[in-house]
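Input set for joint prediction.
Command: fold jointly, output tokens.
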Amino acid sequence: MKSHAKVVVIGGGVVGCSVLFHLARHGWTDVVLLERDELTSGSTWHAAGGMHTINGDPNVAKLQKYTINLYKEIEELSGQATGVHLTGGVLLAATEARLDWLRGVVAKGRYLGIELAEISPKEAAELMPLLDPKQFVGAVRNKEDGHLDPSGVTHAYAKAARKLGAEVERFTKVEDIVRRPDGMWRVITNKGDVVAEHVVNAGGLWAREVGRMVGLELPVLAMEHMYLITEDMPEVAAWNAKTGTEIIHAVDFDGELYLRQERGGMLMGTYEKANKPWSEFQTPWNFGHELLAPDIDRIAPSLEVGFRHFPAFQNTGIKQIINGPFTFAPDGNPLVGPVRGLPGFWVACGVMAGFSQGGGVGLALSNWMIEGDPGADIWAMDVARYGDWATMAYTNAKVRENYSRRFSIRFPNEELPAGRPLKTTPVYDLLSARGAQWGVAYGLEMPLWYAPEGVKDEFSWRRSSDFTQVAKEVATVRDGVGLSEISSFAKYEVTGEGAAAWLDRMLACKLPKPGRMTLAPMLKEDGRLIGDFTLANLGSEGWFLAGSGIAEQYHMRWFEKHLPDDGSVRIDALGQKLTGVSIAGPRARDVLAKATRSDVSNAAVPFMAIGRMDIGMAPCLVGRVSYTGDLGYEVWVAPEYQRAAYQTLMAAGEEFGIGLFGSRALNALRLEKNYGSWGREYRPIYGPLEAGLDRFVAYGKDADFVGKAAALAERKQGGKLRLRAFIVDADDADVIGDEPIWFGGAVRGWVTSGGYAHHSKKSVAVGYVPKEIADESDGFEIELLGKRHAARMQPAALFDANFERMRA
Ligand SMILES: Cc1cc2nc3c(=O)[nH]c(=O)nc-3n(C[C@H](O)[C@H](O)[C@H](O)COP(=O)(O)OP(=O)(O)OC[C@H]3O[C@@H](n4cnc5c(N)ncnc54)[C@H](O)[C@@H]3O)c2cc1C
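tokens >
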């Protein structure tokens, strides 16, 4: 075994082998994979080997498509058969709500290049003869479903990697990992040490234990999973003989089942409600090629549905039940990327669908390690979407919930209850008492809307029980004044003698003067966005940044990577050490004036001013800006004062009819101002010109800010896309995001977000279209729940286009 390598990959499951292959294919051949046993000795060997392209996140779906297309290449390169059977499949809906969901999947497929088509239950039965069409209301045909040989695929990756120069060391157990003073990693194994610049944790079932070697508690948990294999079935033999083809895959969402042919019989797997975690605290190192004891009682309710939906199963025997563990992250998507605070330590774990996702994970990670960027929008898989709040107990609750809902519908207005409430702010109970309906962002409870007694969310794809109430909250803001809780923003403090120069290099905007704020896009070297913030200059106190709450860890990882070594700049994420409330609406100034002794006149506190003032007895930092697009203020306050500040503002607002508003009303308000947000409109695949943030980029400033050359090139060449707002002729449903935008009879773009703008009484969709059609006003259509609705471009903000209200 070599003693030095550029990269050590820990784990010879499908994921580690894919990472190794991709690194070698990308040109890093001084790479070695260490496997404690034979390859596939974790969850890989007993997988059912199913693969499919669909995923709730379109970017992950793209990587799944990449994975499936890769098998031919690795088979040819390695000479190792992968056993791929691209049978195609049907996705089955037994309820109308499920069919609505499937229509959304078909629509997404249109701009992802995934060929999906809605078919009737009868047509589904013609393709998949075992199903009873009477049990279903509709189906979708997917040509890119199939299955493969898990061991063949893993060995094909490994062999192809070896051919390219990579090494694989089996029976080599990593026992510890130590960071050396020179920044290199010492990987200690039962066969000696390997010193490496980079380490990849692809430890699968042991990813947690490998993480712990470097002081990391990864949010992953293994769950037991069962599938059964039947005796040979005459129906299968008859179909094979009649058509010369295998029985295609089926996913029966309402039965929580997946099925495929296995030799002369069928394989049926289920994600049962009464699920069971495996090795909750510590995975035993002596677990190898073993199976767990099957527990038929646990899967009996799903099988009962299965036998009804697929009656031929009633007449056949079960040959074998496989029960094996595999790992999940709390939301079921992989954990990939560099780990904040551990330079050169990477993870590729929590991959619950290794045969659909392993290739994409390897591709993204190798790009990231070699090029410094994953090369795709992989936010949904980024390890940085979790912070310290994703503890072991939280992970346990969420993984169990996710497993039990693997095939369940999640409605756009549905909040999942497990692991909550976890983080709350001091006003939590006060807002609850006023009917707050809670959502969660980065582990923190945030009010979505305020419900009258006895009313709550009715889950639906269409406008629902909150609609009239959110309309009232919007009216409260636009006609008077509203208060909302804004603690879920990420807040950062930047201090030190080098702070200004560093911010000037990190952010693409012009730095504001003391007491002023500005919008601050942040770019990567390739000129695309990696963040958007409000930057405030607090004079001698330093600098204050507010940004997307869900991206706190993501942005801190980026900031810390770029900090100078000399200690001249310090950045702190304030988390819930700083909380906030915001007031907005034409009477907001009146409320603030009553709540403070400071001068809050327009002359003293103009638009985008920021400064310290007491609200009642509470010391606060108050900035004159509001995401509602109205006259408004953001009030930042230490948590011990948040209740006092809130109560003072509510009392002061009483005579002006102050009311509470939640994030759904805020969405309705920002839509009519064409304001985008991080994670929706602004993502790392768009340039500032494409995203309409170029007006905040100081292209001409002296500082050589990160991404400057590429941003100048984008401005010169014009980029490819444009972010645009549309008014949709919707009926009883509004867009939620990821719907296709049609133009000239073809899908040309996609929706990033939208909803009903209650004040303007318009259904709004925001999304990207190619720049060639970005100045057309008519002829657009947006597909919603299987129907195309006419849409008109809305170039100017629907509300206060001339900024009169905001700046008054
Ligand atoms: C019953 C069942 C059915 C499934 N069906 C499907 C399916 O149809 N389709 C699908 O896509 N997925 C399926 N899966 C999931 C799939 O198996 C996983 O997604 C996949 O195996 C994850 O691979 P991995 O490489 O991340 O982890 P693992 O396969 O667990 O590999 C990790 C490897 O790392 C090694 N390792 C760990 N620690 C160390 C160390 N310290 N030193 C050296 N080596 C170490 C282990 O020995 C192991 O070989 C199924 C899983 C089960 C259990």
